[in-house]
Specification:
194 residues, alpha/beta, Rossmann fold, seven-stranded mixed sheet, 7 strands, globular
């Protein structure tokens, strides 16, 4: 029997954070949900999640509803409930160390200062999961990191956002259906998404 995969979009709950850089993981998860008609019909363990199929692969799509720095436990609880191993999890999150629009797929590794990934690593006891990192860039002013990731995209960035989210959705599908290595080959080499 094929293993069910868990796809997790990271973000902060609530309308105030909806269109911020830190919520790009939620945006991609929602795009995947729309593309494959997966609805977040369940709310349990402080997470929204739904079950569906992506090109024949059975998946659970989840968004933790705790704040970013506490997202680990809700995701761990969903994984445990469905008996999904850490290595069968794909996490989508923002990354300030990547230029805006870049997508980078990574197998395992550290948290790179990302509080959501750090929380997941604490909950799972390690970082043995694949990540799709979406570049949101660093602030061009002296604004601190927290203020930057919790800010909304600029007008110019917003014009490109739809294409970036669609490309990240394609990266999710590629990793899930063709493997992480294929995903890396296809998406990591691109300097800019558009």
């Amino acid at each position: 029997m094929k293993q069910v995969r868990l796809i997790v979009g990271l973000g902060n709950p609530g309308d105030a954070y909806k269109m911020t850089r830190h919520n790009v993981g939620f945006m991609v998860a929602d795009e995947v949900a729309d593309a494959f008609s997966i609805s977040y019909e369940r709310k349990k363990f402080d997470a929204l999640f739904g079950r569906g199929r992506m090109e024949g692969e059975e998946v659970i799509l989840a968004k933790p509803m705790a704040f970013m720095n506490r997202s680990g436990l809700p995701v761990y609880s969903v994984a445990k409930y469905f008996r999904i191993l850490c290595e069968d999890m794909l996490v989508i999150h923002d990354d300030i160390d990547l230029a805006f629009g870049r997508i980078k797929i990574k197998e395992k590794g550290g948290h790179g200062g990302h509080n959501g990934v750090r929380s997941l690593m604490d909950a799972f006891g390690g970082g043995h999961f694949t990540r799709i990192r979406i570049g949101v860039g660093r602030s061009e002013t002296d604004r601190n990191v927290a203020d930057h990731v919790l800010s909304r995209f600029s007008a110019d960035e917003s014009k490109m956002l739809e294409q970036i989210i669609a490309k990240a959705r394609d990266a999710v599908v590629t990793v899930l259906c063709k493997g992480t290595k294929e995903g890396m080959n296809r998406f990591n080499s691109k300097n800019i998404i558009i």
